[in-house]
Write a structure and sequence with these properties.
Elements lengths: L1 H10 L3 E6 L3 E2 L6 H20 L3 E10 L3 H10 L3 H18 L6 E4 L3 H16 L3 E11 L4 E3 L4 E6 L2 E6 L7 E10 L5 H7 L6 E2 L1 H12 L7 E2 L1 E3 L8 E2 L2 E6 L1 H6 L1 H4 L7 H4 L9 E5 L3 H14 L8 E4 L2 E3 L2 E2 L18 H13 L6 E3 L1 H24 L8 E2 L9 H23 L3 H22 L1 H6 L4 H22 L4 H10 L27 E2 L23
Helix pairs in contact: 12-13, 13-15, 13-17, 14-15, 14-17, 15-17, 17-18
Bound molecules: 5'-O-[(L-methionyl)-sulphamoyl]adenosine.
């Protein structure tokens, strides 16, 4: 079915744009960090869609369901493995629906199509001699599902005595000796180094540099083990023709990006508009090495080109502390937030606060303050004031008369609005959502000031000043239309409601429609247009007693 989609899309010859989130482990319910990865990817694909009418977006996400961690979690939950995986996978789907994650494909690694892809990929590596069998011993982290080189381990004192942990993740390690299949990672060092020199292939550049440094460091470059004894990791895809070995969960997981687009159908490779290489893998810094070193090497070995880009983000801490089950500070996004201020506020906060380079900090107080001051006051109030019956009883976008107001006041707003689309386009293109939000809010603050200083409530009392009132309302409503188009990738639900309120046709909501304000259009609007009448609250203030659920699971 999916293959048919691609064939059809190639007929209409739209350019493919393929963006992915990591697939999420089902060993626990989704939390704020997981939601962030997905919201970031979603905002990017929404921006791509409103700026390019000629692209065909594939936006994939899903769940990573194999491995020891999942075995343990299912046992703890007292559920069969398939039931357990389905339950948590379903929670991700609910969460994505609630937070408007508009994915086109949700893949589970326990699906048949994925099993086929992984086995095919494996055989391909074996055929070209990139996989061999060997005895392997080393420090193993069940939590990271990875062997950790000795030099990246340290001893730590705990109440159970001395334990060895991974320096990178802090997770406990066990000395493990087993027979494994190995992948010739070392054969790809030079090719990887070349790929990593491609300008902007990993963004932000700080993370590209990190990977380049890793490659300089020999320690990262031994071959890697790509199987585990099935006796230990039984909930996994078996190595083809060897029932005693399970395929390494990371190899299994990474291949999801190919399963989604129909691999192993080799005809895909020959298609003109095939959605590969992926345009962007979005992921957090904890899994950068897997995507920036292992994945391109696996692909090179299988003779598939590596991804065009990787976007790596930093982490969310909570009240200044790393989220962890043991600390009980894991923030679970509420799953009944659809259409409520909380859902919108959380999505907005995630994009508005986080920079990619540095960790961001979540606190409920911050969520409430940001949402109330920016979405409720700066944006929502302005909407209510200029759409409400007190000042706009006919519910219309009044005509734009030749200036009826002091140029100094109107000019500042108009100039800022004129510049806004270009500024935000640049920030969105650089994935700097926080800067775009800042720019929009700054224009909206100017619009609020303009509204205040124009005193429309006084103009309303004096019929001879109707035209001045019209100009105030027109400029403000036009500013709101432009801001609503720009905000669509960040807060799609309230942007849509606002554009509906302003009766902006669905076909007039793409980026080009925010680039020219009405006052720049030759022979502008000289006739009033209707907006939706009736009571309208864009974003209700949030009061502290409604708590965002914090749970330790
Ligand atoms: N299953 C692997 C990915 C395989 S992709 C082929 C995995 N899953 S995960 O559920 O642990 O993480 C999924 C995403 O959530 C990652 O991008 C990770 O960085 C992100 N986050 C997990 N905790 C996070 C924070 N505290 N803050 C921000 N994002 C973090 O890794």
């Amino acid at each position: 079915m999916r293959l048919t989609n691609y064939l059809l899309s190639s007929v209409v010859s739209k350019r493919p744009f393929y963006i992915t989130t990591p697939i999420f482990y089902v060993n626990a319910a989704p939390h704020l960090g997981h939601l962030y990865t997905a919201v970031l990817a979603d905002a990017i694909q929404r921006f791509e869609k409103i700026t390019n009418s000629d692209i065909n977006v594939t936006f994939s996400t899903g769940t990573d369901e194999h491995g020891t961690k999942i075995q343990q979690a299912a046992a703890k939950a007292n559920l069969s493995l398939p039931d357990y995986c389905t339950t948590i996978s379903q929670e991700y789907k609910y969460m994505f629906k609630e937070y408007h994650i508009e994915y086109t494909d949700f893949i589970r690694t326990t699906e048949e199509r994925h099993l086929k892809a992984v086995q095919h990929f494996w055989r391909r590596l074996v055929k070209d001699d990139y996989i061999y069998k060997a005895k392997y011993s080393g420090w193993y982290s069940v939590n990271d599902e990875a062997f950790v080189p000795e030099s990246h381990t340290k001893e730590e004192n705990t109440h159970d005595g001395k334990v060895r942990v991974s320096v990178e993740s802090g997770h406990k390690l066990e000395w493990t000796e087993e027979t494994n299949y190995m992948f010739r990672l070392s054969a790809f060092k030079t090719q990887l180094q070349q790929w990593l020199r491609t300008d902007g292939v990993i963004r932000p550049s700080k993370f590209q540099k990190q990977l380049q440094d890793m490659l300089e460091n020999e320690v990262y470059f031994p071959d890697i083990s790509v199987s585990r004894p099935a006796s230990r990791v039984h909930w996994a895809i078996r190595v083809p023709d060897d029932e005693e070995q399970s395929i390494y969960v990371w190899l299994d997981a990474l291949i999801n990006y190919l399963s989604v687009i129909g691999y192993p159908d080799e005809d895909l490779m020959k298609q003109k508009n095939r959605p590969w290489p992926a345009d962007l893998h979005v992921l957090g810094k904890d899994i950068l090495k897997f995507h920036g070193i292992y994945w391109p090497a696996f692909l090179m070995a299988a003779r598939w080109p590596p991804p065009r880009g990787i976007l790596c983000h930093s982490h969310w801490t909570v009240d200044g502390v790393k989220m962890s089950k043991s600390l009980g500070n894991v923030v679970r996004p509420p799953l009944n937030a659809a259409g409520t201020a909380y859902g919108t506020a959380l999505r907005y906060l995630l994009l508005r606060e986080a920079t990619l380079q540095d960790d961001a900090n979540y606190s409920e107080t911050k969520l409430i303050n940001v949402a109330n001051s920016e979405l409720a006051d700066t944006l929502g109030n302005l909407v209510s004031r200029c759409c409400g019956p007190a000042l706009n009883p006919r519910a219309e976008l009044p005509p734009l008369h030749p200036r009826g107001l002091e140029p100094a006041v109107t000019d500042q707003l108009m100039t800022q609005v004129d510049r806004l689309p270009e500024i935000c386009h640049k920030h969105y293109s650089n994935y700097q959502f926080y800067k775009a939000a800042d720019a929009v809010m700054s224009v909206l603050r100017t619009a609020n000031q303009f509204f205040e200083t124009s005193k429309p409530w006084e103009l309303r009392k004096d019929p001879s000043r109707q035209k001045e009132l019209d100009v105030v309302l027109h400029l403000t409503l036009e500013t709101l239309r432009i801001c609503a188009i720009i905000l669509q990738p960040m807060v799609p639900d309230i942007s849509e409601r606002l554009l509906d309120k302003l009766q902006v046709p669905k076909t007039c909501r793409s980026w080009q429609h925010c680039e020219t304000a009405s006052w720049r259009v030759k022979g502008a609007i000289y006739e009033a247009k209707n907006i939706q009448a009736g009571k309208f609250v864009l974003f209700p203030r949030i009061y502290t007693e409604k708590k965002v659920k914090k749970a330790s699971v």
